[in-house]
Structure formats: structure tokens, C-alpha cells
Amino acid sequence: MDIDGTYTLQAPQEVVWNLLMDIQTLQHTIQGMERLERTGDDTYAFTLHIKLSPLRGSYSGVAVATKMDYPYRYHMKAEGEGAPGRFQAEWDITLTPLDENTVVGYQGTLEFSNAKLPSSLVKGTTKVLIQQFFTSVADLLRTADFAYQDDSEVHVDQSGDVYAHEAHKHYPASQEQSSLLLIIVRQLGLGDKDPVLEQEWVNRLRRIGFISMLLFFVWVGTRLPRRARVQKSR
Hints:
- The protein is α+β, with helices and mostly antiparallel strands.
- It contains five helices and nine strands.
- The chain has a seven-stranded antiparallel β-sheet, with helices on one face. A two-stranded antiparallel sheet has the order 8-9.
- Strand 6 and strand 7 form a beta hairpin.
- The chain is globular, with a radius of gyration of 23 Å.
């Protein structure tokens, strides 16, 4: 069956690409992902538990990313087996800039060996899972300035050509402040090396800093009239 659609994320093209390539981010944004680990160059092993019918059950398999053209497009292929039977999926991902946002398009196929599965329900459930994934990614982008430890990453495409991309390219100035706070969070071990928890601590520290500044201005505002009255009485 064919699966396709688009989703607009409020982030630059390079940031969205890096986020979709970040294994820890995928672990937290793919619903039911129990295990996701890199087993080779752009090859991943996964265990996924789906709670929605008719695909309810646990799945294990391998996913491979190919034809990577940073930051515009790449191809994914996944296969494995689970309670409903063996499955095979293949899809193209495209990233198109739209003003300061990025439109993520996906187009591919999904096949199950179990012919008894109703295709219309399988397609509907798959679309719901994809929607949940992009919603989680959008929430992450809204609540945290996504930061990456590596300044660049090198890939080799199918033709053997080597190319690199800068992970911090086009970041706004506010993310530089977030990077400093992220360093502090990691030094104190507040996020237990979990990227999502670390970003939550960054947000907390940023809010604490704002509240502290607000209280400071309130304190100054209450002191100035008192000082003016003292000087007037003299």
C-alpha cells in the first residue's frame, strides 16, 4: 500500500535534518520505540511496540538510510517481523524550505505478509503513527532549542563522494545562550545524559533567569521611590 503526506516543522532545513538523523531524538519521538541502536553506517536495529489495532504488537527489524543528499532528501528502507507477520517498508523523505520553516514530505510503500490485515485500517493506523511522530518532533522544537554536540558530520554517498555538513549552521543567537546553559546542565549532571531531559533543564534555567531578572527590576522599582522620598526630606 502507498503511504504519503507532508508535515511543516517550524525550524530551518538544516536543523530538521540533524534532528531526524539524531538517534536519541528518534527514541523519544517515535511512539512505542523500545530499542533503537546504530549497527553500522546509517544502519539501525529497532524494537517497536505498537498499541493501535490492527497493528498492535511488538516488532523487531532493521532500518537503513541511503541516497542521503543533505539537507534535501534521503531514502529509508525497513524490514522485520512482529505479531501480525513480516513487514517491509520503503519511503523517500524530502525537506523543502518554506520561509523559516521546513516542509517534510514522505512517500513510500508498506507491505505485510499477512494478507488478512485490512489494508484500509493498516493505512489509517500508519498515518496516525506518523502524525504522532511529527507532533512529538514539533513539540520538541517548540519547547527546546535543539542542540548537537558535534560541529560537523561526514557521510559517504553511494557514488563514494564524501560530503560534510555543519550541525550549528544558521542557529539563532538565542541558541548560543542555550548551548551555554546546556554545558552547565551537563556539567552538573542534571539531565542524566538524556537529551530531552537536558533540554527541559535548560528551559527551567532560562525561566529561572527571567524570573530572577523580573524580581530584580521589581526590587529596584520599590527602592527608587523610597530613595527619592529620603532625598526630598533632606
